[in-house]
């Protein structure tokens, strides 16, 4: 007969390789979501800047394809 073990993920701690700090799975998820949000915002800024550059060149008549 197999004995069931109850696992409490919120109570478990895992090492974070960046600085060796111990974090919970919830903290890991929060960090991942934060990084994804930052990357999305950066990506949106890059796209906006590219559109501005294209419009600038179109207005000057020096249009370049990206």
TrEMBL record:
It comes from the Bacteria. It comes from Paenibacillus glucanolyticus. This is Uncharacterized protein.
């Amino acid at each position: 007969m197999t004995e069931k073990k109850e696992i409490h993920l919120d109570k478990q701690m895992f090492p974070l390789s960046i600085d060796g700090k111990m974090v919970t799975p919830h903290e890991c998820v929060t960090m991942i979501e934060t990084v994804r949000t930052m990357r999305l915002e950066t990506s949106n800024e890059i796209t906006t800047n590219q559109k501005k550059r294209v419009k600038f060149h179109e207005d000057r008549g020096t249009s370049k394809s990206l």
